[in-house]
Every structure is written in structure tokens, then in C-alpha cells.
């Protein structure tokens, strides 16, 4: 029963984040790129004030997989690197914490570019 509740909580948090993004797309004239930036910066800001940790504790993967979770990972990486390396960690921590995801995005982007045919819209 506990695992079922974990799934429900992840669905609830992830679904809520997606719903907010969809409302922003439908009700504003913001571009998707602005909404992506808003989500990443929002994840960093909510982590900085200690709110996103509580959201991650509740929603687990529902909170860490969306773009707000990328901002959370950046902020946590910077926080840990500053604790261990001082001011230099402010410049290196975010990239170290998210290097796997960034490498995967680049790698899959290259694969898709190699095996798909571009077309004009």
C-alpha cells in the first residue's frame, strides 16, 4: 500500500507541475522557452528558500524529473560544492551535479539528428 501511495504522490506533484505549465501556455502569450526558464529558475529559487526540499520529500520523482527538478539539482550541487570547495564550488557544483543529464541530452540529441530527417514547418 505504501508503494501505491508513493506513485500517487509522484503523479500528483508531477501532474500539478505539468498542469501549471499547460495553463501558462494556454492563458499567456509566453513562449515555451520562457516557461522552461521559469521552471528551472523556479526550482533553484524554491530550493534556495527551502521549499522544494519539502516538495521532493512528498512527491519524489514527480518533483525531481520535471524541469523544476533540474533547477533543484543545480542548486543542490552548488550548495554541496560550496560547502566542500568554497567559492569555486559556486561555479562548478551545478555542472557536476547535472553532468549526467546534460550528457544524456546531448547524446540523444546527436542520435536523433543522425537518424531523422529534418523538415521545414
Question: Structural class of the helices, strands and pairings?
Answer: mainly alpha
What portion of the residues fall into strands of 2 or more residues?
Answer: under 5%
Q: How many helices in DSSP terms?
A: 6
Mean pLDDT: 90
Number of DSSP E strands:
0
> What proportion of the residues is helical, as a percent range?
over 70%
| Rg over CA atoms | 17 Å
Shape: globular
Describe the biggest sheet? none
Which H/E pattern describes the elements?
HHHHHH
Q: How many structural domains?
A: 1
Query: Span from first to last CA?
Result: 48 Å
Which residue ranges are poorly predicted, with pLDDT under 50 across at least 5 consecutive positions? Answer: none
List the helices and strands and how they pair.
Layout: H1 2-27, H2 32-48, H3 52-59, H4 61-64, H5 67-85, H6 89-115
Amino acid at each position: 500500500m505504501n508503494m501505491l501511495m508513493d506513485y500517487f504522490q509522484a503523479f500528483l506533484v508531477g501532474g500539478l507541475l505539468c498542469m501549471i505549465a499547460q495553463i501558462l501556455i494556454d492563458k499567456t502569450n509566453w513562449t515555451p522557452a520562457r516557461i522552461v526558464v521559469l521552471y528551472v529558475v523556479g526550482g533553484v529559487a524554491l530550493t534556495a528558500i527551502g521549499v522544494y526540499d519539502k516538495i521532493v520529500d512528498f512527491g519524489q520523482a514527480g518533483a525531481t524529473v520535471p524541469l523544476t527538478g533540474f533547477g533543484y539539482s543545480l542548486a543542490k550541487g552548488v550548495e554541496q560544492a560550496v560547502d566542500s570547495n568554497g567559492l569555486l564550488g559556486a561555479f562548478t557544483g551545478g555542472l557536476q551535479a547535472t553532468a549526467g543529464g546534460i550528457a544524456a541530452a546531448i547524446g540523444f540529441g546527436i542520435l536523433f539528428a543522425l537518424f531523422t530527417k529534418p523538415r521545414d514547418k
